[in-house]
Amino acid sequence: MSFLHHHPFSAASRYARLVLSEYDEAVEFVEEKPWVRNAALLALNPAGILPIFIDDNETVVAGGSVITEYLVETKGARMGEVRLMPEHAADRAEVRRLVEWFAGKLHGEVTNYLVTEKIYKRQMKQGEGHTSPDPAAIRAARANVRYHIQYIGYLAARRNWLAGRELTLADFAAAAEISVIDYLGEVPWDADEAAKAWYARVKSRPSFRSLLNDVVRGVPPAPHYVDLDF
Amino acid sequence: MSFLHHHPFSAASRYARLVLSEYDEAVEFVEEKPWVRNAALLALNPAGILPIFIDDNETVVAGGSVITEYLVETKGARMGEVRLMPEHAADRAEVRRLVEWFAGKLHGEVTNYLVTEKIYKRQMKQGEGHTSPDPAAIRAARANVRYHIQYIGYLAARRNWLAGRELTLADFAAAAEISVIDYLGEVPWDADEAAKAWYARVKSRPSFRSLLNDVVRGVPPAPHYVDLDF
């Protein structure tokens, strides 16, 4: 049996979950609190990041991008057309560039602010670092999200999927971030039709279903969150 | 002919330079200012990041980690033992975890502060965003650098190289960051003997020579910067 230590609203965790599901990997999920230092998890990975994947051969792999590269290398061969990484090095570089952009820049400029202020802070108990949401962080996220949606629309309008003709890791890295932002009702869908059409296509995949069932107590999802035709 | 658009004190650029040199790739270097928006470069990569590698087949690859993965995939096969990526997926995941740690976390917590405040701001002209160095940023870098050096020492004391038995991309990602910090005299070498011994080994490689010749006008290197036996 393999395991994924994750948090349901950590975008990097969602990225790993999507790829695991696309690959039909049976995984036991262990929920963690990203804001609590957990000695057992730190022993597995000193960066203290989520998600952490423990393969059934006991290999420990930490971090959304590292896990997904590992999955492609170890399980991808049997996946044929939905391997999620193209064959040619230049195309793979484009996938990695976009994964870094979404998991790094979009995450740092938008998702991380919103999830910290609107979800993690609400779930923190006394003594776990609980403070009130910071309106400046939420404002920054709202100012930044628009150009990211437009960039997704720019790519989606010119290509079949974000990195090119094929569905790749880049689509899931982006969709994982967007899904968290969308739960919170913070995606300006009116900003870009092509981005919206792309997201509707990713969201309709069976791998997305479990994400759409995640709920945070006290923070209901935006009304259209589970709607495949939003 | 292939090209690398870079800045001599961008750590990600240095990371790509080291790997290109280890691979004996003939490259033409084009110096850029990371703080100036350059329309031609933005057309090549909308993230506007350095370095950018243009392969002799005109493939454009942006970003230190993406470039080095591309080099391993396209030129690594002929490198034999100094391929810089191990054969097994679990070992490759460890390399990628460390590259992300050094190019992401060490960079964000230390190198980026120091290079921005002490080098880029000095090189900026009026109208390019020039302001005085921010002492708070420099203090943050100095507070953070120590545990990074200790982590490098921890790895180096337990393994032959940072990611394991073999020299890998992880050593060059780390050394590229350290080399910039060291130029500025901000590495607390007394904090960890094993880290120092590891850096002396990387620094002695021929691929390091060109880095040791880089100089910023007005910011002389720390006295031991070029010393292989510091």
UniProtKB/TrEMBL annotation, chains A, B:
Residues 88-222 form the GST C-terminal domain. Gene3D superfamilies: 1.20.1050.10, Glutaredoxin. Residues 1-79 form the GST N-terminal domain. It comes from the Bacteria. InterPro entries: Glutathione-S-Trfase_C-like, Glutathione-S-Trfase_C_sf, Glutathione_S-Trfase, Glutathione_S-Trfase_N, GST_C, Thioredoxin-like_sf. SUPFAM superfamilies: GST C-terminal domain-like, Thioredoxin-like. This is Glutathione S-transferase family protein.
